[in-house]
Structure prediction request, 435 residues.
Amino acid sequence: MEKKTNMEKKKKILIAAVAATVVVVAAVVVFILLGNGSDKAGKIYVQNVKELMSGTFQNRYSGVVETQKSEKFSFDTSRQLEEVYVTEGSKVKAGDKLFSYNTEKLNLEIEELQIQIEKSNSTISNNNEQISQLYQLMESADSSEKLGYSAQIQQLQADNAQAEYNIKTNQANINSKKNAISKSTIYSSMNGTVQQIADIDTIMNGDDFGGNNSGNPEGGNTFITVIADGNMRIKGKIGEQNVLNIYTGEKVIVRSRVDESITWKGTIASINTQSTASEDEMFYTGAAEGSAKYEFYVNPDNTEGLMLGQHVTIEADLGQEDTRDGIWLNSGWICSDENGDNYVWVAKSKGAKLEKRKVVLGRYDENLGEYEIQSGLKEEEFIAWPSSECKPGAATTTVYAKPSSDGLDEGNMGGGSDAPVMNDDMPMPAANEIY
Prediction:
């Protein structure tokens, strides 16, 4: 029990440290991008408190909803296709027909084998009659003739043994073909959806180009693929720079790509660090372009509203979706003076002068590294990231600036010889999802 408790403590500390680091670094990124908070006229950049609280700096990774179970039905290329009972996208239930083989050839082969068995039985019967006659002749023959009769009998007995073997072989073949006929119709073993029907000519010609073959994306002899209903999971993609930032058992938030206010919660079930994805897959992966990409899988807590094939984003669940009353700020925005009083740099409205405002702190969210502001600040006001340029009475602006080769330019994020160089591993605001 003590070991488990210590592990839980370490894990909690690690999560808190990572969360705090992510938010603080993200805030610093904003600070850097804004030209250290001031524009070319010496104004301090300020941000609306309410808008600031609604933002998130979590890395988001792309994902797609898939089923945890699928079944691939192969095609026996030694047989002929009779009929396909489904189309791609068809809903099927366990026991529904998928396709069937033509049985005409098998029936003809069975008839031929039965004829061969009848011939063998006739041969054995005729040989037995001859053997009986030879025994009678051998009893009345003199000793010099008995040796010849004996040789004839042995030959006929050997022919019978071969005929009996042929009968057994042919009967086994008949049974096999009858069994094949009985299984000539292939049924679905589960409720689901027909995801793929390969081109039958491609399979019959043996053209196996794996996933690059449009006729048979599954490759090989896979003819029909059925994906099960329910049991959905999310397959995510992540780049090599960030794959070590996630772990099995981590709680995550899954967001709709269409409406990010629609969310689901889940847990990372597994991470595949052995299998990299192809370079041309169009996923937001949280890594630099051209780096290796890995798959990880999320089990959602519930699947209501999720659709197979739906594209989503995945981010660490650090409590950002929890409803909280009041104002919460990352600790990086808050300063302390020599008397131990906490303060922030505030502008009452757009264009207002900057002031040093004392605030009273409440609760602390260790996962997000945020403090509750009990008093001293309003949502409609604006705050500045602390810097040496923040002075009481300083002019403010809500238009951000950036360093450039000829000074500071307002209102754009373009390049310039002095523009800050961003590290691929540095967290960015979630609104700027990274490829």
